[in-house]
């Protein structure tokens, strides 16, 4: 039990013995609570351990809403829990609820009411929830409209074995609690993007989530794996993005942030990557960055085959409080990879490691002069100690939420 000190120096000794007894009891209770909290923080070995203190983990997103045993009655409070560069994404907070009851996707031009496609194309803000567990196999890209939240808490929802999610030239989107996997290239077809417009779509790459020319996007507590291209890509001037609490597994090129070395509009890009678990079967691009400003903070990297963080075209990368566990391969211990082979060029790029935990021979090659202004633009929240990473990422991915119970 931690030591507790009573503030006797500040007590008025004329107070009653009953008050003193009460103060002592409160202190003992605080000490017991603190001891239990410490044990909870140290428990970093089990994913999905939902004990009494699971909602007080030090993860600011989860601590914002998971302590509420009636979270299902206050779903829209999630919109106030964002962090990082995408913290102002409000999704469908100011709209009505839309319940998806039909997992079908028979007609991408004329989607049926009750389907996910019908929900996401609407013009007005919507908070989209699911009536039951379902697997949604999309015939074509799910092209979203602005001010939408997809909230799968309370249901087991898979977007799988077909097309996946496209966020293109819109803003204010929250995607929470989906299993996204086995996404395939689709296209050369007509697809509706709003109640008043549909058009021809060329072939899509097969990303899990493709963010294209969009802003104020928050991707939280999803499980992503095994897609044809990237799991999450953000390109063409996208910015104000937070990717948090996701569980990534079994994929080669995990995350691309920036369109091309020649596309200079991506200099405005700001992305926060926080509290994610990069797990088994991953190869590279966690993320791979171009041009912009990237805050990689308090993530748990337990697997990579080539490298964890890569980049080209002078991105600023601020790595803080992460846990990097290198693979056994002696030639893959380096966390970082510069696609530019000329060290005389990349040595000026601002890449830093601050408070990271480097395990099993992992090493981070820093560079740049450490310009304060550059790192200020690549900072979005305060990093926690890397010793806490196991605890604060232990529930990364889709949560086993059920209605009427603490999540």
From TrEMBL:
Pathway where this protein functions: Glycan metabolism; pectin degradation; 2-dehydro-3-deoxy-D-gluconate from pectin: step 2/5
Cofactor note: Binds 1 Ca(2+) ion. Required for its activity.
Catalytic activity: Eliminative cleavage of (1->4)-alpha-D-galacturonan to give oligosaccharides with 4-deoxy-alpha-D-galact-4-enuronosyl groups at their non-reducing ends
Keyword Oxidoreductase included in the entry's annotation: no
Keyword Metal-binding (UniProt): yes
One GO molecular-function entry: pectate lyase activity
Cofactor(s), by name: Ca(2+)
Enzyme class: lyase
Domain Pectate lyase: 133-330
One Pfam family per UniProt: Pectate_lyase_4
E.C. number: 4.2.2.2
Compartment annotation: Secreted, Cell wall
Signal peptide: none
Gene3D superfamilies hit by this protein: Single-stranded right-handed beta-helix, Pectin lyase-like
Keywords, ordered alphabetically: Calcium, Cell wall, Lyase, Metal-binding, Secreted, Signal
Protein family per UniProt: Belongs to the polysaccharide lyase 1 family.
Name the UniProt record assigns to this protein: Pectate lyase
Native source organism of the sequence: Salix koriyanagi
């Amino acid at each position: 039990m931690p030591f507790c000190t009573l503030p006797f120096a500040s007590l008025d000794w004329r107070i009653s013995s009953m008050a003193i007894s009460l103060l002592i009891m409160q202190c003992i209770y605080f000490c017991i609570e603190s001891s239990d909290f410490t044990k909870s923080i140290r428990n970093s070995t089990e994913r999905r351990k939902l004990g009494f203190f699971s909602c007080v983990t030090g993860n600011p997103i989860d601590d914002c809403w998971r302590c509420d045993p009636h979270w299902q009655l206050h779903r829209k409070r999630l919109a106030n829990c964002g962090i990082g560069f995408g913290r102002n994404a409000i999704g469908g907070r100011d709209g009505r609820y839309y319940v998806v009851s039909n997992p079908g996707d028979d007609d991408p031009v004329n989607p049926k009411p009750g389907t996910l496609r019908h929900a996401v194309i609407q013009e007005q803000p919507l908070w989209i929830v699911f009536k039951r567990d379902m697997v949604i196999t999309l015939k074509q890209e799910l092209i979203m409209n602005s001010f939408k939240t997809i909230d799968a808490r309370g249901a087991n929802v898979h977007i799988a074995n077909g097309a996946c999610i496209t966020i293109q030239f819109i803003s204010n989107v929250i995607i929470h609690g989906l299993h996204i996997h086995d996404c395939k290239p689709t296209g050369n077809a007509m697809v509706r993007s709003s109640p008043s417009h549909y058009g021809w779509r060329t072939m899509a790459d097969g990303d899990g989530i493709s963010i294209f020319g969009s802003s104020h996007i928050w991707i939280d507590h999803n499980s992503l794996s095994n897609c044809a291209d990237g799991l999450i890509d953000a390109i063409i001037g996208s910015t104000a993005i937070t990717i948090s609490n996701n569980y990534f597994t079994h994929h080669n090129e995990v995350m691309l942030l920036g369109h091309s070395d020649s596309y200079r509009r991506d200099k405005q890009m700001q992305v926060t990557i926080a509290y994610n678990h990069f797990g088994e079967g991953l190869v590279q691009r966690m993320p791979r960055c171009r041009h912009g400003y990237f805050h990689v903070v308090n993530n748990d990297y337990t697997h990579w085959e080539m490298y964890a963080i890569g980049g080209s075209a002078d991105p600023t990368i601020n790595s803080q409080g992460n846990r990097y566990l290198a693979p056994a391969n002696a030639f893959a211990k380096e966390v970082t990879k510069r696609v530019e082979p000329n060290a005389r060029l990349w040595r000026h790029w601002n890449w830093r490691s601050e408070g990271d935990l480097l395990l099993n021979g992992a090493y981070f090659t820093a560079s740049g002069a450490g310009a304060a202004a550059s790192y200020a633009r690549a900072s979005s929240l305060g990093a926690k100690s890397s010793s806490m990473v196991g605890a604060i990422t232990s529930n990364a991915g889709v949560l086993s939420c059920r209605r009427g119970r603490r999540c």
